[in-house]
Amino acid sequence: MVIYEHVKGTISVPCYNDAGDYAGYTNDIHFTENDIIKDSCSITSRACDDTTFSLGGVRPAELSIKLKLEGDGINAYNLYGAKIILYSCYAEHPTESDWVLRGVFWVTSVSRVRTMYTIRASDALVWLNSNSISSGDGKTEDDESIISKKLRDKLEGYEQQGGGGFFSLPDIVADIVTWTDDILQNTIGERPLEYHHIGGIPNENPQGAYANGYTLMRKDDTSNPEGESKNTRYSPLDYVSYLAQCACGFAAVCNDFAHTAEGTLYTQFAIFPFGYAPEGDASWNPIQIKNEQIALDGSDVAAYKLYIQKIYFKTYDEVGWTHPRAYKPMLGNLEVDLSGNPFIDGRRMETVLGYGINDADHDEYVILNGVANYIFKHVTLRPFKTKCYLQFEKASEYPKLGQRISIESQKGKWVDSMITSMTWKFRGGWEFSCTGKDTRVLAQAAKRSLAFNAENAAKRHADIAAAVARKAAADAKRVGTFAKDNLYVTNNNANERLSISVFNNFMNAVASSFANAGVDFGFSYSNGSVDLPEYKE
User: Fold this and answer.
1) DSSP 21
2) CA 266, CA 497: separation in Å to the nearest integer?
3) Residue partners of 267: CB distance under 8 A and separation at least 6
4) CA-to-CA dists, residue 150 to 109, 157, 227, 351, 475, angstroms
5) Are strands 57-58 and 249-261 parallel, antiparallel or unpaired?
6) Phi, psi torsion values for 451, nearest 5 degrees
């Protein structure tokens, strides 16, 4: 099997005037695969950590590339913040229609050896965590970030208007992106963030006991009914992450939604639930990897599945809400904790004003129930890692995070799972994996034993240190007592001549006491006829 693959791209380097201000234009550098050092180009994306399944991931895809670059104004400093637009295609002799957008990235790390540059860059999601938005000059009164203040004003508008304050999940995310873009345009001169709403995400508009939709949570402060808890530390990334939890998924940039406006190429991100597969969309059908497409010894697939046994959260007042299901022996039993989510962590504003005693009055459980029902029915997690060689013709065919995948682990034997991490390497194939390691009884016991041993070792070291400290204190006390007892004798003999042997015995006794306390008390003296022999350190 022969796979033809090509890459090209553009690096837009910001230009500055002599005063050091942005000049309003960029120096565009075009590169091809001939400028890439040893095919060193890859894109890595993750929806959650490599070892633990979780909801709410907002992890920018990362581009890694080594390029040979030459030209005026090109150096490691000027490349920081540059924008990279990358294309690739599978064709022996590419035409313009063959090229597929692989992403728009911003340079976050550069190292240089002569004209060879090692570059790392992240897609637009990285801007959601900009410090200028969540801290520094992005603060307002009471140390609250601009985005947090705007969100509270939106969601708590009922205070000024006499009602409302409930919105759908996509509506909140769209506003967060708009506000963040406004700040970025004043900071970096660009509006890189765009949000694309995909229909059918879980908990899009939850049906609560008092109202429909989402609002920001606050604590029920009985001592100060007008008081509110400020979400001062939250950045736009935090809010998008918490809403992605409610939608049973994660945020990711999808190049399918890219478009060009006023000569600028924009990519968009969306919140994807794990296992999302709209009817009639062939691109979301399980991607199939045949046995002959897998690299030699390039696949490991677990015989068991990760089993999500319980989804739960704890509110600010330590009240816990849980949606469990039966325990499955010999499976990887997992628990998903949604505690700390400001959209379900406290009481809804309406329930703060009229808090009921029945379970049906707790609107937070409606969201938890929606998450549990979706995850239990739509998410299949079988740990695996596979390196394979595939080719695609258009963006909609490219693999996506959260997509279902079917692997022919042996001839005629297929197993199903889901992609939670993927890496594409130029002319090096694809690497897919599903998060998780063996979380069954043995692994749990081993982790507990390691933690238990480490804890005991720490206690033993602490006990030893305490014993040494007590001994040193006791020795120091004895030294003090000895000095006090001999002070009278010393004073009475101050005007009398002391023999060398008397002074020698005295000083040796002092030195011995200090030695027991860990102090070196060396001394020397000279024979003479002074009232006291001369002592020198």
Assistant:
1) S
2) 97
3) 101, 103, 104, 123, 124, 194, 253, 254, 255, 257, 258
4) 32, 11, 18, 22, 64
5) parallel
6) -65, -40
Element (H, E) at 36: strand 36-46
**Amino acid (one-letter) located at 366:** V
- List, in order, residues 6 or more apart from 393 with CB less than 8 Å away: 90, 98, 100
Q: Rounded to an integer, what distance in angstroms lies between the CA atom of residue 250 and that of residue 403?
A: 12
Element containing residue 386 per DSSP (H, E): strand 384-388
List, in sequence order, the alpha helices (H) in 253-333: none
Distance CA 281, CA 251 (A): 20
**CB contact at 8 A, 13 and 73:** yes
DSSP-assigned letter for residue 400: -
Q: Is the dihedral of CA 383, 389, 393, 395 positive or negative?
A: positive
> DSSP letter string over 479-496?
HHHHHHHHHHHHHHTTTS
Contact 335, 312 (CB under 8 A): yes
Position 461 scores a pLDDT of 67
CA-based nearest residue to 311, from 402, 373, 361 = 373
The answer to whether 196 and 94 are in contact (CB under 8 A) is no
What residues does 62 pair with on adjacent strands? Answer: 44, 122
Going by their DSSP bridges, the two strands 264-273 and 249-261 should be labelled as antiparallel
CA distances, 143 to each of 184, 220, 237, 486 (Å): 20, 21, 18, 62
Of the listed ranges 211-220, 240-249, 429-438, 495-504, the one predicted with least confidence: 495-504
The CB density around residue 16, as the number of other CB atoms within 10 Å, is 12
Written as one letter, the residue type at 448 is R
The enclosing H or E element of 270 equals strand 264-273
Neighbours of 393 (CB within 10 A): 13
* 217-261 pLDDT per residue, tens: 654 444 444 444 554 567 899 899 999 999 999 999 998 888 888
DSSP state of 125: G
Which of 431, 328, 440 has the alpha carbon at shortest distance from 389?
A: 431
pTM above 0.90, yes or no: no
Summarised one tens digit per residue, pLDDT across range 190-200 is 889 999 998 88
Residue 220 corresponds to which tokens in the numbers above?
A: 């029920």
Which segments of 379-420 are extended strands (E)?
A: 384-388, 404-410, 413-418
